[in-house]
Write the structure tokens for this entry.
Amino acid sequence: MKKFVAFITVFMLCFSFTVPAFAEESETTVDGSLPRVMLSSYSIEGDSISPDKEKEIEIVIKNYSSKKAIYNIKLSLTEDSGDIRPKGTGTKYVSKIGASSTYTWKVPVVASKTAKTGEHKLALNVEYEDKYYSSYSASDIIYVNVKQSVSLDYDSIQLPVKVTQGNTETVSPNLMNTGKSTIRNCKLSFDIDGLESGGVLFIGEIPAGSSAAGSANLRVSSEKLGEVKGTVTISYEDEFGKAYSEKVDVSTAIEEKKEVAEEKREDEQNNPLWWLFLIAGIAAGGALGFGIPAIIRSNKQRKEDERRL
């Protein structure tokens, strides 16, 4: 009996010392969870950037950990082609982002003069630590559109000074893309009083620095006369589908169509020898009319002379 009591006493003493040890160890256990830091959202002033103006990208970064803050944070924004350049170094230091908190980084950027039109990828990198000085990093992609200037020049969009009723006149415009962005769906439409085009003249795509030509046949009305005016509308789109248009004023004078008889008289008047043939014909006719009676009189006189003999 005494041995049993002694055993119980020793067991209780051991238990009383080990329980606090377990409790103390649990309090000092290191939290090894990874604090996730990700791009939450971003926006660009005007939805695109161009070489002629600096724009600002607003980047929102969120610490998705519900327990751990992050510290000693380095943000960086880069673009491999060099077409888009952040102002300054393109980096930012942030001391802390709390658990479940966000940080907003506003980065001024500009496109180079030779930047390719269209969508570009910017790499966002985040380097940070937790409270135990464990290092982490995260990266995301930001998509940015670059827009270059759109400019179109043209020539040969004009009508002859005069046109004739019922005739068909040809207009052969030449369009030149003088901007740095490809022009798409380029077309010309005609609205001219007294001239019918029969439809739209479609030119299509014109790359930057290139030109394209087209040809349109315009039928002149048989019922109109005199001066007529109208417009030629050039419409096109840039690479993002934005529409542009400009109007060109044109004019001409419609003349009456000449009849066949008038054309013959015009041909006679254009022949400087026609009057010589007329005089020769008259002279020949006159000589013939004078010669025949003279011959008859001569024969009659000769017969009378023979009778007398």
Notes: Residues 15-27 have pLDDT under 50 and may be disordered. The first strand starts at residue 37 and ends at 44. The chain is about 25% helix and 45% strand. The CA atoms of residues 231 and 249 lie 5 Å apart.
